[in-house]
Amino acid sequence: MTLAMVEEIRQRLTTALQPVELDVVDEGYKHAGHANEGKGHFHVRIVSAAFAGQLPIKRHRLVYAALGELMDHGIHALSIDAKSPD
């Protein structure tokens, strides 16, 4: 399930934001024993021209919008490192 989710996250972000760099890491193992047994915890590092001139909150909103319903079904926690290429 988590490998499929990593690929789904990667695909959606690539389609929406056309990143020049993208790393999606399943961090569920860090949250074992927590609610949902650590499932659905991910870290995204993304570099995209779409973020140029945007404040961090706007960058995060763009990521959330790209992920759509995954934020309600499949992703329990998401940490985001969103940068522009410059």
Automatic annotation (TrEMBL):
Belongs to the BolA/IbaG family. InterPro entries: BolA, BolA-like_sf. GO terms for biological process: iron-sulfur cluster assembly. The lineage of its organism: Bacteria, Pseudomonadati, Pseudomonadota, Gammaproteobacteria, Lysobacterales. This is BolA family transcriptional regulator. Coiled coil: none annotated. It comes from the Bacteria. It comes from Dyella choica. SUPFAM superfamilies: BolA-like (SSF82657).
